[in-house]
Amino acid sequence: MDNERYERGLEMLARVDGEQGDKVVEALADIAPDFGRLMLEFGFGDIYARPGLCLKDRELITISALAAKGACEPQLKVHIHGALNVGWTREEIVEAFMQVALYAGFPAALNAIFAAKAVFAERQ
Amino acid sequence: MDNERYERGLEMLARVDGEQGDKVVEALADIAPDFGRLMLEFGFGDIYARPGLCLKDRELITISALAAKGACEPQLKVHIHGALNVGWTREEIVEAFMQVALYAGFPAALNAIFAAKAVFAERQ
Amino acid sequence: MDNERYERGLEMLARVDGEQGDKVVEALADIAPDFGRLMLEFGFGDIYARPGLCLKDRELITISALAAKGACEPQLKVHIHGALNVGWTREEIVEAFMQVALYAGFPAALNAIFAAKAVFAERQ
Amino acid sequence: MDNERYERGLEMLARVDGEQGDKVVEALADIAPDFGRLMLEFGFGDIYARPGLCLKDRELITISALAAKGACEPQLKVHIHGALNVGWTREEIVEAFMQVALYAGFPAALNAIFAAKAVFAERQ
Amino acid sequence: MDNERYERGLEMLARVDGEQGDKVVEALADIAPDFGRLMLEFGFGDIYARPGLCLKDRELITISALAAKGACEPQLKVHIHGALNVGWTREEIVEAFMQVALYAGFPAALNAIFAAKAVFAERQ
Amino acid sequence: MDNERYERGLEMLARVDGEQGDKVVEALADIAPDFGRLMLEFGFGDIYARPGLCLKDRELITISALAAKGACEPQLKVHIHGALNVGWTREEIVEAFMQVALYAGFPAALNAIFAAKAVFAERQ
Q1: Residue numbers in D near C95 (CB within 8 A)
Q2: Which of A43, D102, E63, F111 is packed most tightly, with the most Cβ within 10 A?
Q3: Confidence of residue E18 (pLDDT cuts 50, 70, 90)
Q4: Which part of chain C has CATH 1.20.1290.10?
Q5: How close, in Å, is residue D5 to chain C by CA atoms?
Q6: Reduced to 3 states, what is the DSSP secondary structure of residue D3?
Q7: Helical packing angle, D90-104 and D106-123, nearest 10°
């Protein structure tokens, strides 16, 4: 195990996705533990931790990419939590998905907005 | 024609995509002039002009969505110009595409980075 | 609010998607009311209301696009209702999805056919 | 070889895609001749030849699916030729792609409209 | 009906997808019986039965394609069963999805791994 | 720099993609050198180097995923070279893309087959 990258990844994950991220790594524990570790090391330890963009910008990129791509509702929900955790408001997140509608169509935007609605309700 | 929305759209397009955006609307003039107008009115007059997010955030959303979706290189290039126009640096744009790699894979990120490389060269 | 476009959009929505479309707009009311309005104005008031193609052709385009794109089952179901509402038969809708199989593969076609099966059952 | 299905496929291909379709099958001759034959037998002999929808409807489904899916410009161009061959006008084809914009976003619609522009120019 | 191709398709389906495949064909019986037959004849009778690749390789191709494409969980699950049926181990299937992460991103890989987890649990 | 992972990545890249892979890393040198390094370390040093699947299987997964996903022709070509380098024959690669047609449609398969045709011609 690559301790430094793993520790840095764990720390970033905690700041961004909080409990939601932990649950994903836990769900992988019995079937693909290495994948959970590699995702932490590379995704959070290598990429998220880079200085070139702040965490707030990174989460905006992430939810925009996931909403446009589609077919990844569980990950989108984790990162809507993440976007709220790093300082985006509910209104800004919905506004971001309205912007995505121009490039990925109304259904992609609607799916993302309804995912946001579910996440907002969970956090109440 | 819906003059107010059209005028607002033209103004937003000028601020964001500059000449690149004009060329798209011109290229539509002989085949789908209504589509050029509707895109301006709705995309730029209705959505881009909304106060909920600043232009700089909107362009980050746009290039992230386009990079993740793939198969839209011409539009991605227009909006890499746009991202530079509204204040993102070259380094930040490349960094955004590295973040997209996590969610859409390396090929999507590579295609976006090489589109950025071409745009940066054009502007030199 | 743009009254003329909104009214025309409401009217088109009623003719195409009936109750199903209303439910989508209602579900947006508390989280993204502007998005519901913009979708009505632009989608139904601007595009659907254009004279270049009849409603029946527009719904065939819509269900074909949604089936091929995938990952938008709720919207596909709304528009399978829509396709029935504007005069397509159940057999023709299933036949359309078989045609889509050639271009988007068997899984996309199967998902669309099973969405149709669920919609047909709902309407019985 | 399955003569009846192959012959029916050849006949359908000739009616729909004309020369453009022949070129695809020819281009496969040295690398994947069986794939050319299977595509003809299944795509054109089995699916296109079914009575449930007329050829004109089938081509509308096809160009809508291809435009929404994206990343298949060569096939989209073949079928824009096909759509013209079976009776759709240039204006209707462009209108169809405007309808697709609602469901797959502006870039997908723009790419399809510019593919149509290139096909229309070729035919002049 | 094309008896030879159909019989060969049935036999291949039984070897690959077993009961899971039968259920798909049965689920189509009341809504799209021809589609079930055509899928068997073409998919299993024509393609799967070709000598150029062994069944084990074909199932690896299939689960990799489905995982990368996304939005086809039911079909992915059928073919994770299929991959196990033709001799891949659970560990190899998870490993394949880790490889897919490089090309289609972490969410696509996670969705596939969790589909595998569900299939493995079903078979216990 | 993570020397061990980087060295292992370089070695794997050389075995799989040879010159083609080097060219990608070189093309990134002036615009995104860190991305080239991270891709090598994670993609080739971490994932490709894992013992769970042999290189030959990994390349089959890769070309199947890329063909199904679409919109990544440059990467698909690099890995068609890779598939040939690790022992797949031309006929088997084409056969794999025919199998992909079932799950991602004929256009995706055709694009992959024509990419293979171009790669085979280059190597002659």
Answers
A1: 50, 52-53
A2: E63
A3: confident
A4: 54-124
A5: 16
A6: helix
A7: 160
pLDDT band at A1 (very low <50, low <70, confident <90, very high): low
D20: Cα within 13 Å, side-chain hemisphere: 18
Q: What is residue F29's DSSP assignment?
A: T
| pLDDT 10s digits, C9-46 | 999 999 999 889 889 999 999 999 999 999 999 999 99
Q: Tell me which of C12, C61, C77 to substitute to probe the interface with D (most D C-beta atoms closer than 10 Å).
A: C61
Three-state SS annotation for chain E: CCHHHHHHHHHHHHHHCHHHHHHHHHHHCCCCHHHHHHHHHHHHHHHHCCCCCCHHHHHHHHHHHHHHHCCCHHHHHHHHHHHHHCCCCHHHHHHHHHHHHHHHCHHHHHHHHHHHHHHHHHHC
D75–F contact, CB cutoff 8 A: yes
Do residues E115 and B118 lie in contact, with contact meaning Cβ atoms separated by under 8 Å? no
Out of 3.40.50.10150, 1.20.1290.10, 1.10.10.410, 1.10.150.20, which CATH number does the structure's domain F53-124 have? 1.20.1290.10
**Numbered ranges of CATH 1.20.1290.10 in chain B:** 53-124
Q: What angle do CA C92, C96, C99 make, to 5 degrees?
A: 140
Report pLDDT for D1.
60
Length of chain B: 124
Interface check D101 vs A, CB under 8 A? yes
- Right CATH number for E54-124 from 2.30.40.10, 2.130.10.10, 1.20.1290.10, 3.40.50.970? 1.20.1290.10
| Chain A residues touching residue F38 (CB < 8 angstroms) | 42, 46-47
Q: Provide, as residue numbers in chain C, all residues whose Cβ is less than 8 Å from the Cβ of D58.
A: 99
Contact partners for chain A, using 3 or more CB pairs closer than 8 A, are B, C, D, E, F
Q: Which residue of chain E has the CA closest to A30?
A: E117
Asked if E30 is an interface residue toward chain D (Cβ–Cβ < 8 A), one would say no
Q: How far is CA E93 from CA B21, E15, E61, E63, in A?
A: 46, 18, 11, 8
Query: pLDDT tens across E29-84, in order?
Result: 999 999 999 999 999 999 999 999 999 999 999 999 999 999 999 999 999 999 99
Number of helices (H) and strands (E) in chain A: give both, helices first: 7, 0
- Per CB-CB distance under 8 Å, the chain A contacts of C71 are 70-71, 107-108, 111
Cβ-defined contact of C105 to F107 (cutoff 8 Å): no
pLDDT of B117 > 70? The answer is yes
At a CB cut-off of 8 Å and minimum separation 6, what does D19 contact? none
Kindly state whether C107 is in contact with chain F, defined as any CB-CB distance less than 8 angstroms: yes
Between CA A38 and CA A46, with CA A41 as vertex, the angle to 5 degrees is 130
Using an 8 Å CB-CB cutoff, list chain B residues near A47. Answer: 98-99, 101-102
CB contact under 8 A, D94 and B32: yes
